[in-house]
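If you are new to this repository, start here. Below is one unmodified record pulled from the training split, so you can see the exact layout before writing a loader.
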Amino acid sequence: MVLDKDTAKKTAELLLQINAIKLNPENPFTWASGWKSPIYCDNRVLLSYPAIRTYIREEIAKQVESLYGKPDVIAGVATGAIGIGILVAQAMGLPFIYVRPEAKTHGRQNQIEGHLGANQNVVVIEDLISTGKSSLNAVDALKEAGATIKGMVAVFTYGFDVATTNFKDKNVVLHTLCDYEQLAQLALETNYIKDEQLNTLLEWRKSPSTWKQ
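And here is the target side for that same chain:
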């Protein structure tokens, strides 16, 4: 769920401005999952732009406090949300931890890095949501460690039905600064894409796993 339309529009504008969102319907990208996609999102790029990362930090911190007050801990999902999560934790004066996809096979074999006390309230930060699988894997690890998950806040979501189902099944509330519809509409309004390209983007979003150019 996107809480504020003005924030969504501004976030989309900034992501397009720094090419964090790449739209190329004519020459689709291939995701790690094997899906063919006319869009590729790399929100880690925003960390290279001080003014933009400050905006994202402040907006996420504002959402976290508005929705949940001050949790005990901010958690980032490795690796994409580590930088963003640290910024948010620092802005809120809160401890920070991050969660690996799986436990290390050496050293202390941690999956969660940083100090997490028993029964602490945690808000999870993500850079983007596709199917939600990796994000919810981090939630599972935190719950197993005794954390109470208040919710998750992400920069961007593709808004796939499968993600909606996955979050519902895990009883995790997701809020984002921006979503796919806002981004696609702004890309059209600013002549970043043309009408036919917008149609391609919307068609892909309906069934990304089976979409063909």
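Two things worth knowing about this chain: Strands lie at 21-23, 29-30, 36-37, 39-41, 73-77, 96-99, 112-113, 121-129, 148-157, 174-179. The chain is about 40% helix and 20% strand.
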